[in-house]
Amino acid sequence: MDWRRPVRFRLLGDVEAYVDGEPVDLGHARQRCVLVTLLVAANRSVSVDQLVDRVWSGNPPNRARDVLYSYLSRLRAALAGMPDVAIVRRGSGYVLLVDEATVDLHRFRRLVARARTADDEAALPLYEEALGLWHGEAFAELETPWLTATRLALAAERFAAELDHADVALRRGRHAELVTELSVRAGRHPLDERVAGQLMLALHRNGRQADALRHYRDIQARLADQLGSDPGTALKAVYLRVLTADAAVPVGPPGEPVMVRPHTPRQLPAAPRSFTGRADELAALTKAVDEPAATVAVSAVGGIAGIGKTSLVLRWAHEHIDRFPDGQMFVNLRGFDPAGPPMSPATALRGFLVGLGVGAESVPDDVAAQAALYRTLVADKRMLVVLDNARDTSQVTPLLPGSATCAVLITSRHRLAGLAVTGARLLDLDVLTDAEGRGLLSARLGHETVAAEPEAVADLLRCCAGLPLAISIAAARSAAHPDFPLATMADELRDTATRLDALDADELTANLRAVFASSYEALDDEAAMLFGLLGLAPGPDIGLPAVASLAAVPSSRARVLLHWLETAHLVQQYEPGRYRLHDLVRLYAIEQASHDQSADRRAEALHRLVDFYLHTAYPADRVLYPHRPTIELERPTPGCVPVPLPDPDEAMAWFDAEHPCLLATQQLAAQQEWHREVWQLAWSLSAYHRRRGRLRDDSVVARLALAAGEQLNDPAVLAQAHKRIGGRLFRAGEHDEALEHLHQALTYLAAVGDLAGQIDTHQALTALWSTIGEAEKALANAQDALRLARTAGNPVWEADALNAVGFCEAELDRFPAARQHCEQALRLQRAHHNGEGEAETLDSLGYLDHRSGRHTSALDYYQQALDAYERLNFDYQKADTLERIGDTYLALGEPGRADDMWRQAIRLYEAQRRTAEADRLRQQLPANGGTTGA
Predict the structure, then answer these.
(1) Can you give the pLDDT at residue 731?
(2) Residue 207: what pLDDT?
């Protein structure tokens, strides 16, 4: 098909598109990244998650999918004038439908593939046309980690094609015109023996024998100095021919090999005996092999050490062995073998060639020649090649057949993203489900043994955290003592300090610590340092900005280091920008941190992390409730870079994402006796906890703050803690203890002259007395709060107190006074833009109208309050308002609508673990004997 066609896409250089020779505006860089991702995978679906990851690389913007959809919409508009080109939705992803001959990358690959199977006369123009498609580095102006990896892989493809082209051109006698080109190439690749041999041949045939021999001596010296090795057999052969002035120096691979006994290899190890689960993963491998493709079907299975990659691949291979009648080849590449270095591609190829029947003396020494012979022998055969425990893409690339009739399954602890460029399917394994783990344990120990001790089995599986190797080791150790109960093994595993020792079966491959060590030792120093610190970090996961502060590196560098750890499957990026470690990997990381980093360095890193959470949470709390009194924070530790969150929605989203980490961080600070940070973190969580109704969590952080205040002997801190604890206790129905804490708070607050704290405490007492039906006592405390607020001269505090007074007066049926106070409060709240106070006052006005029989007006106020709480993400108050709306509908004679409101309130109460409120309201529903009806 003619390349001079109306539609053209260029990726091999700057990213460009043309219609009838006219350039198409493809938009800004991010938008072009989306197009490149779709063009590289032309006519194949790319999931939305893959698009987001490849375009933003773990640092997507807010609403990344919406942004992505806008890019796709603009690209559709830009490509609208191109015949037979379309971006369509397919499944969970998108496909760019296009004639691949119009895309220079795919045309390049097709031309090279044709050249490699043609005779020299036909091959030469094919290579030249293919290499002529390059106009610089692939997608040179775009930068993301995925594009960079793809660019490097394509550069390797280009280099291989250039070498093949030079071999053919030399055989066709074009040595004179190649000297300059080969000299430049040899300068760029000073240790490449194939390039050196080509240059020596070109020089020799141009009558420059001395220059050819000098170049041999130069590369011989470089190989000795830099690699400690001698030139290979192929280069030595060129040298000897040049030395003896033999003009017929051979170019390219040797002649036909001597076949000792051509036969069908059957190299697969035995199928795993105790395989369980993994139905979806087995189906994914089948789908990958079944998909029609122009090249060999490759699936790379990745995952953490011990996750069961080899077992999965061997299970699939044995189940589908009939599909490969021409043989199955297997090699353990020892990429992470604790007993020795990784296997070289040359050694693996030699084993494959001998397995295919090639005489040992006929196996070439040069890796490229070995690979060429290997591809020739397996061409058009239906064979399965299993490459187990690969170190990286460069180790497996020479071992890939060139025939679409073959299939390749690869396992690796590294994520071999470079293979995806050539169409390989990547499959990352996760831990076993609880049911699958139980099945594996039963297969090893027997169903009766497992069924006899359900509690011990549950503990054992929890400690093994779904890792098949850990479960297998625990089973093997238990089987060695069949008369010991499983509870013995479970007890040994419960202690995190000795858990890795317990998961040791006295063999390198059955010792979790040794297995993890082989992955850890492959890291560079900086990545290893971060890995250890991640083990120390509190919480179930960690976000990218927190990682940057933990390690005291810029976010861009943290992202690179995390990518390396993710590639090694030591961390998992389970959603964009958030990372976690497997439980057993975390234990190993903690060990390495204690071995490799000083106590001071570990403490400094943790202090940076605590400061990151504190100095991000405190300003975010101020955004949620700007009228609250301020506290003074010390400057953050050097290297800590907090995240600015100027918008309330951003602040709530951050708290939602980081809340488990914030709780764990306060616990860590308490353990480290960083008392100031303990109570300041409690303070900074206040507004979020109130809005989300997290009363139990708030009680926990408040009690830690109380302990910190006692250590600091700080009455201001003690007052705040007692107030928070009292407020949460009365919500839990512990009224006597709540009163004790609130009165203690008032004593401390009066002693330090904290008017704001006294006002808050009187407000809490108002709510408590109101809840237990003591309206007069509630009103008295509300009036005390109003008096103090006016003394302080703060109009927002005054408005809050006026609202409380009005609510209490409504409870006492003093409606005119109640209306006067609530309406005055509403005016002040609106004048000072206090959205939270405005919503609470609207709710009070709704309650007032409901009590006084003005139900329609009550609904209007309640709806305004509900809308305001919705905007504020204030779930706690929203639940209470929904309940009161239900009460009002019932009073209006609309029980069906009342039920609907109450059901919504119950869902929120349950989410907030407000069990008493949920149960009380559930009793009013007709299904539970309540009085309403549909």
Answers:
(1) 77
(2) 83
